[in-house]
Amino acid sequence: MEKRNLSVLTYLLSIQVVVIISMVFDIPFVRQVLGFIFFSIIPGFLLLRLFGIRHSNIVETILFSVGLSIAFLSLVGVLINGLGSLQLVLNPLSTAPMAIIVNVTVFVLIIVDYLKNRNLAPLDLKGVKFWPLLSLFALPILSMVGVLLIREYNSNLLSVSIIIAIAAIVVLGVLSSYISSKISFYYPLIILSITIALLLSQALISNYQYGADIQSEYNTFISTKNSSFWNLQNNANYQQSSDNAMLSITVLPTVLSNLLNIDPGWIFKIVYLVIFSLLPLGLYLLFKQYWSEKIAFLSVIFFVSNYAFFTLILSEVKQMIAELFFIMLFLLLFSRKIKGGRKWAVFIIAFFGLLVSHYSMNFMFLFFIVFAWLGGKVFWKTAFTKIRSTFIIFPFCFTFLWYIFVVQASYGAGGPFSKFVGVIQTTVSSFLSEFFSSAARGGDVQAAIGLVSRPSTMHYAGTIIYDLTVLFILVGFISLLVKWRKKEFDSTFFSIIFASLVLLISAVVLPRFSGLLELGRLYEIILMFLAPLFVLGTVAVYKIFSRLRRFTQNNFPNVSSEQTKKNSVFLLTLIILIPFFLFQTGLVYEVTNDPIPSSITLSKSKMENSYGLIHERDVFSAAWISRYGDIESKWTFSDRGSLDLILNSYSTIDRSMLLILSNTTSGTVAEGTYIRHENTFSFDSNVTYIYLSEFNGISGIITYDFQVNFHFNISQIPALNSTDAFVNKIYSNGAGEIDYRVPYT
Questions:
Q1: Which of 38, 56, 57, 34 is nearest to 46 (CA)?
Q2: Which residues lie closer than 8 Å to 251 by C-beta, 6 or more apart?
Q3: What is the C-alpha separation between 599 and 606, in angstroms, rounded?
Q4: Is residue 184 part of a domain?
Q5: DSSP letters along 399-412, please?
Q6: What CA dihedral angle connects 227, 231, 233 and 237, to 10 degrees?
Q7: Count of domains in the chain?
Q8: What is the pLDDT of residue 622?
Q9: Residue whose C-alpha is closest to residue 526's, from 507, 495, 494, 503
Q10: Ordered DSSP codes for 539-555
Q11: Residue, of 416 and 389, whose pLDDT is higher
């Protein structure tokens, strides 16, 4: 046994030596790929062994290893940053000190692991045969090629084929009696392949960050990386201040970018995406504890098929990292194997990772565990609950200390805790006065409940399919409720599912409640627990229909095996799931040439000027004004899209020096900015810059508010058309431009 562990020691040290050599000589590809595998898996794997935790499932081992490794890198980064605060290390988050301290720490962990676990058998990989389905990794590769074909040749044929192939793989994996008896072992690999393919198809459509919130996150990351120091007292404006408290977009990406020598932009677009792709595997492991492998597989496919998962969530990278810790915590709480001090050790590290990654996800976790604990102790009157009171007290105390004494103390009224309390207060105060007002629910909620008209017939069809999935979730809850009442289902996990349903209903019923998280992202979170209900609902309806109409006997007369009979139970699931997937990915809208497509990947030529897509020429113009403009003393005006996206990420203009163009003679300060001057600004006596993007130049439209599609024509903007000032074009790239405006005196 000692000889076998000596080989483990040799392997780990050999990999570390190769990684160190690749860093010293900056060997392309080796440093990035092998370095990522080493730093994102090995530290966590060693911690698991030191805690005495042995997972027989390789998927579970990888998931926990990656989660603990990410928390490890964040914690080491904070500790090194502390040395910088004490002036003991210059530029503490730069490559040299990080590489030395991280590698030394990992080396110590390797040696301690060998000394402690001499008699502990290494991970048993016997029987693990990935070769038969390694071809499935062709999906992510082809997805990347498909995106390149769209960007370079405006051809989406390959991307369309990949979506169809994914649907075919799911159908064959569930219904084929020959394959399904063997394929369940490879379900995790199939899930991972499909997940990465979907995420890549969205993330790689542009070289630049896509979406709204990610622009502020990227700006915060770049500020930390450029200074090689995490400054918690960065109070430039509210949005960047609250982001600055999150290690997931400050310390962690800086550490990864420097260790791996990867461009900052690709840390969010590739590295974080790969880490996030493990979330569906965690859900599969969780679902498999309570249902069959096939139900768990279909539940995860339904989860990843939702537009919110593979598109909306990509614009909030701190939530991506937080969700991995979120599911780790629930796997720990419901684990039957990890107990006692070992569970506490991993729980503390995982909760630390969640706490410093995303404040809203942390509040969500607290809500779920409190609801489940109260359900077990008060409402359900069960004698045993997997969530003990100690798992309630510790997270609340840790959260209180972090947000009140660290985050809130730094940012005052603008902190996340104040925002959370504000949402609750607003919801309570508006309950009676705005309960019957649809406007109080927000545009996304109105669209979800059918109060907003659809732009085309196909969109109405897509809405019907979407509503059917929600209906089957409700049916699935009823069927699960019956099982729970018969004491055939775990009460604690039922409490979590019930809490998810309460949140979903609250977002629709309670006015202003969706202000906590926009509905799409909220639905993506609660779907982590509601996804199995969709499958259970379709199975329940199929069984009822079959019994009443003798559906199976009349329509499947050639059924010859019990396995095929079992597979046919999921027929209705696939009948709903596959069209749902094709609508959510935008394939239906593309092949029917719908005038309002939904996929920036499949319909890039039609959505070239969609909100969130940044053009290369806009980045060049933002860099130009940052370099040559007097941006510290002169105001810069732009429309809302340029302010929130391009200038937020790819310029060095302080947000407090940015104003929004309108049809008046004053400019509006950007929402979410700490005001250090008047709320409005007059053009009468100030010299200003006016930034116009490629979209502004081509369309002639100045956007004031994207949420309600409120915009003006350029001819309606006094700043550009009045005769009381000299307006000089100082930069142009053929589409967008930068003007220099000097009022006449």
A1: 38
A2: 74, 77, 78, 81, 93, 224, 230
A3: 10
A4: no
A5: HHHHIIIIIHHHHG
A6: 50
A7: 2
A8: 94
A9: 503
A10: HHHHHHHHHHHTHHHHH
A11: 389
Q: Which pLDDT score is estimated for 452?
A: 62
Q: What is the DSSP letter of 584?
A: H
690, containing H or E segment: strand 688-692
Question: Per residue in 176-231, pLDDT tens?
Answer: 754 555 677 789 999 999 999 999 999 998 889 888 788 889 988 998 999 999 98
Query: Considering only 6-15, 98-107, 614-623, 690-699, which range has the smallest mean pLDDT?
Result: 6-15
| Region of poorest pLDDT, from 339-348, 579-588, 703-712 | 703-712
Q: Helix and strand tally (H, E) in the chain?
A: 35, 9
Burial of 116-151, coded b for 16+ CB within 10 Å and e otherwise, reads ebeeeeeeeeeeeeeeeeeebeebbebbeebbeebe
Q: Which amino acid is at 691?
A: Y
What token pair was written down for 219?
A: 């700006």
The residues, ordered by sequence, that sit 6+ positions from 198 with a Cβ below 8 Å of its Cβ are 143, 166, 304, 309, 310, 585
- 142: CB partners within 8 A, 6+ apart: 158, 162, 197
Q: How confident is the model at residue 519 (pLDDT cuts 50, 70, 90)?
A: confident
Q: Long-range contact list for 401-407, CB < 8 A, 24+ apart?
A: 402/355, 402/356, 403/359, 406/232, 406/245, 407/242, 407/245, 407/359
Environment class of 628 (CB within 10 Å of its CB; exposed 0-12, middle 13-18, buried 19+)? exposed
Cα separations (Å) of 42 from 20, 48, 49, 152, 669? Answer: 14, 10, 11, 38, 47
Domain end among 89, 116, 143:
116
Q: Is 450 within 8 Å of 463 (Cβ atoms)? A: yes
Answer yes or no: is pLDDT of 336 > 80: no
How far apart CA 321 and CA 248 sit, in angstroms, is 7
Residue with the larger pLDDT of the pair 82 and 553: 82
Does an H or E element contain 638, and which? strand 635-638
Tell me what the pLDDT averaged over the chain comes to: 82
Give 401-427 pLDDT, tens digit per residue.
Answer: 887 766 665 555 555 666 666 556 665
Q: Does 696 map to a domain?
A: yes
166-169: long-range pairs with CB below 8 Å, 24+:
166/139, 166/194, 166/197, 166/198, 166/581, 167/578, 167/581, 167/582, 169/136, 169/194
State the distance between the two ends of the chain, measured CA to CA, in whole angstroms.
88
Residue with tokens 């030395």: 100
Pair of tokens at residue 680: 């409005």
DSSP string for 295-356: HHHHHHHHHHHSHHHHTGGGG-HHHHHHHHHHHHHHHHHT-SS--HHHHHHHHHHHHHHHHT
555-561: average pLDDT: 48
Cβ atoms < 10 Å from Cβ of 271: 20
Matching residue, tokens 């980064």:
77
3-class DSSP state of 669: strand
Which residue bears the tokens 């394929």? 183
Distance from C-alpha of 462 to C-alpha of 598, rounded to nearest angstrom: 11
Q: Is residue 314 part of a domain?
A: no
d(CA 350, CA 357): 11
Which domain range does residue 640 map to? Answer: 616-743
- Please check whether residue 456 is in contact with residue 596, taking contact to mean a CB–CB distance below 8 angstroms: yes
Q: Are strands 701-705 and 688-692 parallel, antiparallel or unpaired?
A: unpaired
- Is 101 contained in some domain? yes
Q: Which helix (H) or strand (E) holds 742?
A: strand 737-743
**Most confident by average pLDDT, 115-124, 132-141, 477-486, 502-511:** 477-486
Of 217, 269, 268, 271, the residue nearest 245 (C-alpha): 217
Instruction: From 116, 131, 156, give the residue that closes a domain.
Output: 116
In contact, 741 and 629? CB cutoff 8 Å = no
Residue 247 and residue 359: Cα distance in Å, rounded?
11
DSSP symbol at 648: H
